[in-house]
Batch of 2 targets.
Target 1
Amino acid sequence: MKILVDENMPYARELFSRLGEVRAVTGRPLPEEALDDADALMVRSVTKVNAALLAGKPVKFVGTATAGTDHVDEEWLAQAGIGFSAAPGCNAIAVVEYVFSALLMLAERDGFALTDRTVGIVGVGNVGGRLQKRLEALGIKTLLCDPPRADKGDDGDFLPLETLVEQADVLTFHTPLFKDGPYKTLHLADEALISRLKPGAILINACRGAVVDNSALLARLNAGQRLSTVLDVWEPEPDLNTELLTQVDIGTAHIAGYTLEGKARGTTQVFEAYSEFIGQRHQISLDTLLPAPEFGRITLHGPLDQATLKRLVHLVYDVRRDDAPLRQVAGKAGEFDKLRKNYQERREWSSLYVQCDDARAAETLTKLGFNAVHHATR
Ligand SMILES: NC(=O)C1=CN([C@@H]2O[C@H](COP(=O)(O)OP(=O)(O)OC[C@H]3O[C@@H](n4cnc5c(N)ncnc54)[C@H](O)[C@@H]3O)[C@@H](O)[C@H]2O)C=CC1
Ligand SMILES: O=C(O)C(=O)[C@H](O)COP(=O)(O)O
């Protein structure tokens, strides 16, 4: 059994070698000769998986260690009889923590309280749903837009996108990229939508670049629209518009989902799916794979206010550590992917054990996803 894995999948060699011979390859571009004798292919979002790549090859299963699947022609895989699995939700916590890190940075810089802001969430799935819960745990008002869920009759107060545009101070996108169909998201944020955002609003895109029309956004920013912008994803990648990068408040190289936990969950989810596909069911516990974090334990004295939360969040992950390197290399061939390949280890908030002498601080931090306990220390 020969299994090709993207070289940017942590723990892939260790896990997949339990099932067969593993070869790690670059995902962009994927060396096509490697497919000639491969039984299975494990990719990330940078590899386009379609007939052009796989027709006539022996590959019987494709796994993508990602939440998004717009790089995979699932219809063709199904009609070609090739098994497929994605990794839904694997990195949702990472994206939520990226959004929080960015919002706390902007709130400190511009001197506002997050509890005075209303956050509009477009796409309330694994990322958007977790984001809603964590924002509400802090007492921040959210407005939700998810037409597919609304049409299915899911519980939730789902609103039209237009209402979010009118009322939200922060508009954050967490939808898949659908190029057409009833729930098309390509250029969901177009020039008309962007120009109607509230003055001083914050626009965040951490889903897929083309969900926001990047040329329209640049035109609005150049026209002096009062808007703060956080872009993790770009139209197109890896060759983003470098002028747009100079205009955004935070710009990163599609790394919102890149916690070690998030990437490792992606690998384990496709490993489990493939092991089931070949009839050798394995289940993996993440705890057995992950190393100890750089900061493991901290004591918080007193209550939790926004400034304290910001310091705690930024101890684990400060989004500015990913903004500066992108600005340094943008426009140079190959550098966007190099930043992603050589990504400095980043952990999730749950990796930090926080001992609090204030019961409410412990309760809030627990709801936010920290490993917090209340323990009187004074
Ligand atoms: N920047 C990054 O590193 C990452 C980006 N992503 C992207 O974010 C997307 C969302 O991730 P998840 O929450 O895990 O996916 P998900 O599939 O759990 O949730 C997506 C939600 O969007 C909703 N939706 C679909 N069409 C919509 C529309 N037209 N308007 C509003 N809502 C719509 C769906 O009903 C669903 O509830 C992924 O598809 C992926 O493209 C995901 C993880 C990491
Ligand atoms: O899971 C997704 O969807 C993502 O966007 C991933 O975080 C992207 O990471 P790569 O697969 O491009 O390494």
Target 2
Amino acid sequence: MSNRWIQPGDNVDITNERKKCTFDIEKMSAFIHGGEDKLQRRREILEYVKSNKSLGDPQPIEFMTRNERVENASRKIVEMTNNTDQIDGSDFFGEGMYYQALTMGRDLHAMSLHYVMFIPTLQGQTDDEQLDHWLSLAIARAIVGTYAQTELGHGTNLSKLETTAHYDPKTEEFVLNSPTITAAKWWPGALGKSSNYAVVVAQLYTQGECKGPHPFIVQLREMDTHKPLKGITLGDIGPKLGINGSDNGFLLFDHVRIPRRHMLMRYSKVLPDGTYIKPQHSKLGYGTMVFVRSIMIKDQASQLGAASTIAIRYASVRRQGEIIPNSGEVQILDYQTQQYRLFPQLARAFAFLFAAYEIRDLYMKVTEQLTHGNTELLPEIHALSSGLKSVVSWDTAQGIEQCRLACGGHGYSQASAFPEIYGYAVGGCTYEGENIVMLQQVARFLMKAAEEVKKGSANLAEICAYIGRKGEQHSRFTSVDSYRDEDIVSDLEYVARQQVFRAYEKLRKAQQQANSETAWNSCSVELCKTSRWHVRLYLVKNFLAKVSTAPSDLRAVLHDVARLYAFDIITSSSGNFYENGYMREDQMNEIREGVYKCLHRIRPNAVSLVDSWDYDDRELKSVLGRRDGNVYPALLEWAKQSPLNKTEVLPTFDKYLGPMMREAKSKL
Ligand SMILES: CCCCCCCCCCCCCCCCCCCCC/C=C/C(=O)SCCNC(=O)CCNC(=O)[C@H](O)C(C)(C)COP(=O)(O)OP(=O)(O)OC[C@H]1O[C@@H](n2cnc3c(N)ncnc32)[C@H](O)[C@@H]1OP(=O)(O)O
Ligand SMILES: Cc1cc2nc3c(=O)[nH]c(=O)nc-3n(C[C@H](O)[C@H](O)[C@H](O)COP(=O)(O)OP(=O)(O)OC[C@H]3O[C@@H](n4cnc5c(N)ncnc54)[C@H](O)[C@@H]3O)c2cc1C
């Protein structure tokens, strides 16, 4: 079988790995990326990005100062968006995200929020007339916007946001104000220096009543000079753990007036006389968050896929220690512990990517239904996107760290790209709703389902139908080889269902003794566990179902990966499966053996599996993960670019170290 990943001059070990591959990598790449046509488009976009020198970095960004990073990112995003004819702009999830990942990397930039939240909010929250006016300006890039919701004092609890928008019917204007320091908007991406517009979420007051948080479009800076408008104070919030190419910002209003029609009025409205028209569903205004939570799943999967690619490739070229004495040092990928550390991360990346396709499809369905005023699926997409966002971003962050650790010392260097990948991805645990908080949103959905079941209703959404099923009292497991997909799912359903009812009963009891919120708080650890099990069950079910749709010659290898994902979940929570004698210790021990079997079976295909994700070096940006495996000369070249190496002797020597040593020597 031909293999496009093998080229002359490559490291011998990585080449040998690729020669061992038992499946068609191109076919696998097409399956992973949604079809041959999609794969072909990836290749065309890559070719274009590589051919346009202006889309490149003048030096590795790790060696740049923050100001240089912001400038470099701004230059590239303008060049990138000057050339959007290179992609199908309607395919944000596929071509848009790939084009931006290749060009911009993981440092974000002046227009990330413009594309990820500002434009989607205009699309989702404006009425027709507003859409006509604002969307064309935003798409043409005549204005650059962000999404300013979080404040210094409140991010999670939107009902307590402090920024106010008081309607004045005399002038038909809203007056935006930040009454306290804690009302300052804080965090919005590209707010500090780049954006001149923002969707600002503020408490709407009309006719003397507060109507809760609503979105408004607000001009922040003068069009020509880019100076802040009167009454507006804003700036950058300083360096962060990651995404330092983005100027996340702060913003305060001092009685700034905006026209009535700058309130986004697709769902809620304020009429000229101040009459408030409420939306059909109270959370329709939160739609952009649901959108971002949905696209985050793919983004997080890509980051974990990249980390796994780097670590697995590196483990195939790194030789250290002997397994059989005097027979030469082995590739570290041959250590079972290394496989145990890395292959589950790759398996997770697959599980998350396949879930990302599902949530994308559900999001599109919900959007379509909303155009007809149908809000039926809102609770389901809110629960699923919140749950996936939380579990996926957490596992991704932990997985990236495992990959880093598995690369030893070199994993700690920024040459590996791990610090950048981690700094970028771990933000996902916090933004778009702190994970623990979002898990509790899922739990609300699950507790309602449990209540329905208790009441004898069979009317549950498919996603939580397992809660109403009776299920087996004992696992059907007899041996790993005969452990069918439906048995795996049934075992996970048992544990997820048990946890739902454990939390439900605990909550019910607590509610008899305390008010609803206090009761909820006293059960919240169990409630979060419930949500995690629900999401893991979904991920496993979806992964196995997806594998069954793969071309037949890919199914065996993918099935090993999917089973590893499931077995890893089961064995790392064995206690839950022993409850009520559902599973025996000997059965669990067999499943544990199943993990080792999967590792052994995946080992020969490990490098080819990560090649199938189709990361180009341009996207990975990692010396350790480079396609050709020639890591050591590349590390030396990378280090030589350090600004500290521009001179043989640093001024600090003459200032500090030199005098110290000379003085010490003179005293001897
Ligand atoms: C032309 C092409 C060009 C191409 C260029 C392309 C360039 C592309 C660039 C691509 C880059 C790709 C990378 C993508 C990812 C990376 C992006 C990084 C950017 C990060 C940006 C971050 C932004 C933010 O963080 S914005 C701020 C987000 N904030 C939050 O999420 C706040 C969290 N809090 C909440 O959501 C709520 O307050 C909540 C849910 C905690 C509680 O709300 P509440 O009002 O107090 O409600 P509650 O009483 O608890 O519940 C009431 C009821 O309502 C239900 N509910 C709540 N929310 C929703 C919802 N959203 N939808 C539906 N229902 C909801 C809730 O469940 C309750 O229901 P019941 O139980 O029935 O009562
Ligand atoms: C990289 C990054 C980019 C961001 N970009 C934007 C942006 O573009 N626009 C924007 O508006 N915002 C943005 N944010 C802000 C982000 O959305 C918020 O930080 C996030 O929603 C969490 O809110 P918080 O900071 O108020 O956390 P807090 O709510 O203060 O959380 C602190 C702790 O309290 C816990 N906690 C809070 N409430 C509860 C509860 N009810 N029950 C149990 N535990 C609770 C949390 O679990 C957490 O452990 C960004 C943040 C980051 C890190």
